[in-house]
Amino acid sequence: MYDLLIKNGRVIDPVNGVEGIKDIAIEDRRIVRVEEDIPSFSASEVLDVCGKTVIPGLVDIHTHLSPSTSRYSHRMLALAGVTAALDMSGPIDGVLRLAREEGAGLTVASIEALVPGANIPGLAPDSKDIEKALDEALDKGSLGIKLLAAAYLLEPDSIGNAFRIANKRRAYVAAHCGSSKTNSDIRGFLEAVELAGSNRVHMAHVNSYCRGLIRPDAEETEEAVRALIDHPWLRSESYMSQMNGNSAGCENGIPKTPVTKNCLRLGGYPETQEGLRQAILDGWANINIAAGGQNMLINGPEAVERWLAAGTDTGVSFPVNPPLPRYRLATAKRPDGSFVCDALSTDGGGIPRNVLVSHGLSLIRFGALSWNEYVYKTSTAPAKILGLPDHGSLTAGLLANITVVDPEKQIPVLAVSNGRLIMIGGHVCGAGSRFVTTERGERNVLENGLEPLVIHLEETGFYKGL
Ligand SMILES: [Zn+2]
Fold first, then answer.
1. Stretch 378-393: mean pLDDT, rounded?
2. Which tens digits make up the pLDDT trace of 351-371?
3. How far is the CA of 51 from the centre of ligand 1 (A)?
4. Per-residue confidence at 168, pLDDT binned at 50, 70, 90?
5. Interacting residues of 172 by C-beta distance below 8 A, sequence separation 6+
6. Distance (Å) from CA 88 to ligand 1 centroid
7. DSSP 13
8. How many A from CA of 164 to the centre of ligand 1?
9. N or C terminus of the chain: which is more exposed, having fewer CB within 10 Å?
10. Is 310 helix (H, G, I), strand (E, B) or coil?
11. C-beta neighbour count of 330 within 10 angstroms
């Protein structure tokens, strides 16, 4: 008897060249057969997904899973049909705790932001400072480090050193681009490409540097596309939401983070706490609040109250991502036919914009991506970059990681993660987490009560290419 049989769905698995109405049998958490007409009586549980599309579990390679973003991050990902995710900022202690206490059955990993006053001394950390921060992060279970120009514009030398040191250790390194000499914009992105040199770096949310802050957004987008074509060893992802996500925290009447100031400027507001208050009232700024088991965005007078009650320390989102860069970067190809940005991401998780299914399926409907390309960008490629052995395809023998979507409503309807059902019909039923780490972090992951999945980064797509 099989434990679970997913019947009558349209299965799309480009890795195995499968496309058609098939049944998937799962036994001992592993996929054992993908065939037509597997009899219902051969399984102890049967889920009929007639009219739905069955794809390899979604891997979101840019999310936020710290308790300070939202305690519901894991639930929100499961509801979005995601089965594996990379947290892009830490801090690792909180990410581990949330994965244990609020897990929804996903496979998750984390990289640690370099934060002045926390794990680095200031905005110009030297090599020793960066090595120390990286060592601490790896020993706790992180895969590597993240440059976080959304909040901290480091010196260019420090950024270049961080890329070099992470590569020397064969650790993961990702950049929200921008330095003290540039900003979180197209200049910061092009500067980061130069600073990377021949090092492997994950360029985070490429669309976010193409908001038209310096030149028209279409021009900025083509500059980003050209830079990525010319530096094919860089990994990258872009997201599809109109909303960004950042901190609304203010100090002495001024927003603390450079990106929030950029967003106020883009909306024609003063770059002050008063400007932010007016933007929330008008609906240009949206405050991130917890409600109904997930986070949502609100604006208007109640949002201002909530924001002030939290001492301004809430998340904030602005509709600053123009449509053209999002469309272009989701679909752009290199001359050899491969994608310019390796993966579609969301920069979501606890930030409510987990739109891999809703927006991704719009691109398919629009004729901009085929189903095979969609599966590649949302599962196969990100799984390769992270070196996840059981994601990216529906190959017999792998732990079952499966997402089922309703192609008409463009919503996820079912998710199986590591062989267990974690979401069905908008109800989250998964618990716990499998935590992706390196040999150095295995012990701390175990001590945190989590199941470790040890990977060797030098063997992943991050270092070996796709
Ligand atoms: Zn992010």
1. 98
2. 999 999 999 999 999 999 999
3. 34
4. very high
5. 111, 143, 144, 145, 166, 202, 457, 462
6. 6
7. E
8. 22
9. N
10. coil
11. 25
Does residue 386 sit in helix, strand or coil?
helix
Q: How far is the CA of 62 from the centre of ligand 1 (A)?
A: 6
Burial class of 394 by CB neighbour count within 10 A (0 to 12, 13 to 18, 19+): buried
First to last CA, the chain: 38
**Cα dihedral 414/416/417/423 (nearest 10):** 40
Ligand 1 centroid to residue 5 C-alpha, Å? 36
Q: What is the pLDDT of residues 294-309, one digit of tens each?
A: 999 999 999 999 999 9
Q: What separation in Å is there between the alpha carbon of 347 and the centre of ligand 1?
A: 5
pLDDT digits (tens, 9 = 90+) for 12-65: 999 999 999 999 999 999 999 999 999 999 999 999 999 999 999 999 999 999
* Residue owning tokens 């060592």: 135
pTM of the model: 0.97
Topology adopted by domain 4-55+394-464: Urease, subunit C; domain 1 (2.30.40)
Residue 148 region by backbone torsions, left for phi larger than 0, else alpha for psi between -120 and 50, else beta: beta
| Rounded CA separation 221/206 (Å) | 9
What's the angle, vertex CA 211, arms to CA 207 and CA 215, rounded to 5? 120
Give the distance (Å) from ligand 1 centre to CA of residue 25: 36
Residue 359 C-alpha to ligand 1 middle, in angstroms? 18
255 alpha carbon to ligand 1 midpoint, in Å?
18
Q: How far is the CA of 55 from the centre of ligand 1 (A)?
A: 25
Position 14 scores a pLDDT of 98
Among 287, 245, 293, smallest CA distance to 72 is for: 293
The rounded Å distance from CA 175 to ligand 1 centre is 10
Q: Is the pLDDT of residue 150 over 90?
A: no
Residue 334 CA, chain-centre distance (Å), reads 23
Measure 34 CA to ligand 1 centroid, in angstroms.
36
Q: Residue 291 contacts by C-beta under 8 Å, 6 or more apart in sequence?
A: none
Domain definitions of the chain by residue range? 4-55+394-464, 243-320
- Measured in Å, residue 308 CA sits from the centre of ligand 1 at 24
CA of 251 to the centre of ligand 1 (A): 22
Q: Please tell me whether residue 11 adopts helix, strand or coil conformation.
A: strand
Q: CA-to-CA distance for 88 and 174, rounded, in angstroms?
A: 8
